[in-house]
User: What shape does this take?
Amino acid sequence: MSSPPPQNLLPQVDLGNTFGALFIAGTLAAVLFGVTNVQAFVYFQTHRGTWTLYKLAVVWLWVFDALHLALLTHCVYYYLVINYANFTVLTEIVWSFKLQLVFDVLIVYGVHVLYAYRIWIVSKGRSRVLPAAVCMIVTLTSGVVIAIIWAMYQCHVFADLITRVQWATYMVLGTAAFVDFIIASSLCYLLATSRTGFSSTDSFLTRLMIYIVNTGCMTSASSMVAIITCAVMPTNFIFLTIEFLLAKLYVNSYLALLNARYYLQPDNPDTADFLGLCATHPLPYNKESEDEKLQNFCKDVSRLPYDQLYPARPIQAVMPQRPIAVTMDTSSFSSV
Assistant: This one.
């Protein structure tokens, strides 16, 4: 008599909420990497010339973003193709999963450093208290980066992400959202105090502040959603899906700020040039009142020579441009 078939001892894994979520993350990451390519192309087309720190930063972000996508693709391919239906391997963490999280936190930290450097440059000529505080906060977050990398390499199975290093997930996502708020508010303050009194430039600065707030809210909201999903649904990989996309969002948000001159397209060309100067030069800090501006303008005008104030019009400009008709009366001539 044959023995009864053994019971299925394989763990019941919901592939839709776990590795299916990772597959969706890989697909969306590829789409966002395409957006990164477009933004990098637009930046190099609109900023031709010598290589600067910003161009090197764009190249560095693009390389790290490409490596992050390659590691994420290998991770999905390893679980869903190579080890298809191998539930023993599906519970283990592959090396590319750990390494792509390292690139994830390095990209986020690198973007924060670039934002802090931008704040330092824009605040030149005024008090350094605010940019120094921002730079100090960003520097202190390097400890969080080291802690999350160390905690990640202490995990060997996916259950360790919840039982051992869940605190690290909350810490790194909460720190990222806090730094986003500090950077966005600092940039908006510097732009708000750089108004020149001209309507075209001031309206453009207002649009730029709205642009910065929107990009900062996008990354901060994504971090908060990842924290909430990790707390509410810790047994699936939905929070990991959002974490995988965070690096792409940070890269695109920074490139979008660099390409703001191209995207906003102000009608006034002088305002467009002003935006280009904001990328590498500090904004003027103007404390003059309207009366002082008017008095300084009158003083500057009074110093101009007379021929520049009242230039003489050329003769050709006032002469009629039509031909002069000449008529002759032949009857006035006597016959010979």
User: Anything to note?
Assistant: Residues 1-10, 267-291, 297-336 have pLDDT under 50 and may be disordered. The CA atoms of residues 214 and 252 lie 13 Å apart. The chain has 14 helices and no strands.
